[in-house]
Amino acid sequence: MPDARLDLVNRSFKLAARPVGLPKRSDWLYDQSPVPSPAEGEVLVKVRYISLDPAMRGWMNEGKSYIRPVAIGEVMRAGGLGEVIASRDANFPVGSQVSGSFGVQAYATARGAELSRVDPSIAPLPVWLNALGMPGMTGYFGLLDVGQPKAGETVVVSAAAGAVGQVVGQVAKIIGCKVVGIAGGPEKCDFVVNELGFDACIDYKRGPIFPGLAKHCPEGVDVFFDNVGGDMLDAILARIRMRARIVICGAISQYNTTTGIQGPKNYLSLLMNRARMEGIVVFDWADRYPEAIAAISGWIADGRYGSREDIVPGLEAFPETLLKLFRGENFGKLIIEVV
Amino acid sequence: MPDARLDLVNRSFKLAARPVGLPKRSDWLYDQSPVPSPAEGEVLVKVRYISLDPAMRGWMNEGKSYIRPVAIGEVMRAGGLGEVIASRDANFPVGSQVSGSFGVQAYATARGAELSRVDPSIAPLPVWLNALGMPGMTGYFGLLDVGQPKAGETVVVSAAAGAVGQVVGQVAKIIGCKVVGIAGGPEKCDFVVNELGFDACIDYKRGPIFPGLAKHCPEGVDVFFDNVGGDMLDAILARIRMRARIVICGAISQYNTTTGIQGPKNYLSLLMNRARMEGIVVFDWADRYPEAIAAISGWIADGRYGSREDIVPGLEAFPETLLKLFRGENFGKLIIEVV
Description:
2 copies of one chain form a homodimer.
Chain A: E1 9-15, E2 28-34, E3 42-51, H1 55-59, E4 80-87, E5 97-100, E6 107-111, E7 116-117, H2 134-147, E8 154-158, H3 163-174, E9 178-183, H4 186-195, E10 200-203, H5 210-216, E11 221-226, H6 231-237, E12 240-248, H7 269-272, E13 276-279, H8 289-302, E14 309-313, H9 318-326, E15 333-337
Helix pairs in contact in A: 2-3, 2-8
């Protein structure tokens, strides 16, 4: 039987240049090439959904980080979901639904050890890139293990309508915290309050967030889960309570700077308040992902947990779609559907 | 019998104005007034030594902090040592050697509950404002409880020849760490290496500290105990190891800024390295001071612990002497001897 794959054409975005500031179209190379055949122990995945994450901007830079940079000429790294269409690993037969680091491309080969199974009967596939994927794991462990909120405490999360923010706020509510989100625009604020059950949301596009913090966190902030950095982090630092915990998950306001990172000038509030600021990288909890997936999928099943994805069709839309993250234009977890 | 105290004249420095930048002479009011009589439950202390600390600069500012600001017209707050010369508290008879928050003055009244006994047979009096006083407590608990160094780890401390730096470095050596100090000038560096036993010291006055960090901390920094802030903190952030702990004790480089605090622009290294930055205020360990005093005085008795004080004679020298701290001109714990 002839191999139908030989007729398939892969499409991918490769890193063409290291961006200065926001990635430009010319920083990407759109490439078409034959679909590779899986080697022994590998599978071939037809990628269906590609996760777009703020962290991708960091991977495009040179230099030491928590993960090696994407090389020039390499397919851009990205998490994704797809279906095994050819298999040389008996654990993942053709038809398996899997997630993995497939890159920004339509087809990917991967070793079985690099794959996770996803179960569409638990939640629709895109949710496996959101609440049941990396953002879910990040929010769950970052909040619970590092933020260590206690029932009754006030938790604030920035980028509240984003992938990680949704998780942090909902998990914090479930364990009995007061939750205040920070998001851009009335629609996102309505969503996190009315659909996700946050206690309040501050619209940073309306002006400085400090009055909102004073109003909604009258006793101060016990846990801040920061995805944004910049002025927002400083405003929170000015309002933390004694022994507050600030979880540094990201700093999307700073990733495209061309003038240098803005350090938190109010960091001495950590001293005044005996507070802590700690960074997290989700991979550290890899052996406990099943615990978080079990918890969150249980809440989804109970109807206690909602999620929202912002799904953009078309691999070719990748360069422009990625920018939505840095402009705060995505509404929920940003995903490309490969069509 | 006539009360000889009626003949005594108190001398004090009161806060005349809130300084902008470095405190000027005109920010102080030198005052002479009759020595007060102790009320029931109080003692009158003839102050002999006054502790000069970087934190004093913060107490001169308005606004919320970990302790209320010194009011305009109030005697400047300062720790001190002295002798009880009149007593209406049977627990502290005349002749008792005591420490307390006596202020920048020659005589002070205080309640017994506000006093600690000092024992000159354990260590000379000035050491009770240094290794056995607040700096000792700060360094001991800040390092051990918050920095949590393990034997074999690399500990870096800024202002290494200062009061807190001496403690941090020596305690870290005693528990088996590699210790690198940062200090200004070859004399201070020689002192911490050759007299206090640090493994190395980087002279920040010779230029950027980064080459010294690379040389002396080839595997990176596990614990940084920061008394300085500014560029020094950023240089360390660029060189921390995974799960490093940064203890924020002070930021003397920033206390007199008139252009705004310099936030650590490399703070995202906390994320990359899953590291922690945490502030401390020594008062939180007040009920455990005896533990630290027992440990440090034991090491002093064993000859394993050295301390150095920079004692300046004359209460009247206070305004100019305080500035030595901010210019890095003190060599060891800065103390005024009231003569």
